[in-house]
Amino acid sequence: MNKEILCAPNLRATLAALARESVHRGLNQGSSGNVSVRSRSGFLITPSGQDMAALTAADMVVLDMNGEVLGSGRPSSEWRFHRDIYAAYPEAEAVVHAHSPFAVAMACLRRDIPSFHYMVAMAGGTDIRCADYATFGTQALSDAVLAALQDRRACLMANHGLLAWGANLPAALALANEVEALCGQYLRACQVGEPVLLSTAEMLEVLEKFKEYRSNA
Ligand SMILES: [Zn+2]
Fold first, then answer.
1. Domain 3-216, what architecture?
2. From the CA of 122, how far away is ligand 1's center (Å)?
3. How far does residue 169's CA lie from ligand 1's centre (Å)?
4. 152: how many CB neighbours lie within 10 A of its CB?
5. What is the chain's pLDDT, residue by residue, as a tens digit (217 residues)?
6. Of 21, 68, 78, 180, which is the active-site residue?
7. What secondary structure letter does DSSP report for 99?
8. Quick check: is 78 catalytic?
9. Taking every pair of C-alpha atoms in the chain, what is the biggest distance, in angstroms?
10. Ligand 1 center to residue 135 CA distance, Å?
11. 0.70 cut: is pTM over it?
12. Where are the domains of the chain?
């Protein structure tokens, strides 16, 4: 993990560092994607239409839970699903949304990621769903995302990308990274044949083990 993310003195700087890190990891490019973190008044989110690789603490936009800007700046047009995730999941402290290449490829096929690898359980279930398509920035998209996220911490978004939430920013970024890696692995396996899927019982065993790791962490 980038040291800057873990040691940043305030939330604005921490979020800006994570946005830049998402570019360095190949999850985002240009102004695509957005990241947010919960705050006392609502949440902080990256701005609309700016180069993710060049974002600074001052560029971050503060929103309340109604989506009203507190202070200045124009928030990412996709702030709605960030707000709705914070409202639905009290344990969600950070959200990473990316238009990363393999996740986009899977999302354009509108396919869920099945249990082809045990790491699929990192998102909290036996598969990772692909949310129905809706236009970016709309409440309809947020509703589709929330439906796909039921009992999960990550999902794909049809013809769009991926998103992941976590108990902190590094956890959300790590999960987004994992989902992107899984999409790449699954697509490669599909090029050669039909991947053998783990059974529900095998996945439930993995989910139990992950729960133990988390409670011992
Ligand atoms: Zn997007």
1. 3-Layer(aba) Sandwich (3.40)
2. 22
3. 18
4. 16
5. 444 444 445 899 999 999 999 999 999 988 899 999 999 889 999 999 999 999 999 999 999 999 999 999 999 999 999 999 999 999 999 999 999 999 999 999 999 999 999 999 999 999 999 999 999 999 999 999 999 999 999 999 999 999 999 999 999 999 999 999 999 999 999 999 999 999 999 999 999 999 888 777 6
6. 78
7. -
8. yes
9. 53
10. 10
11. yes
12. 3-216
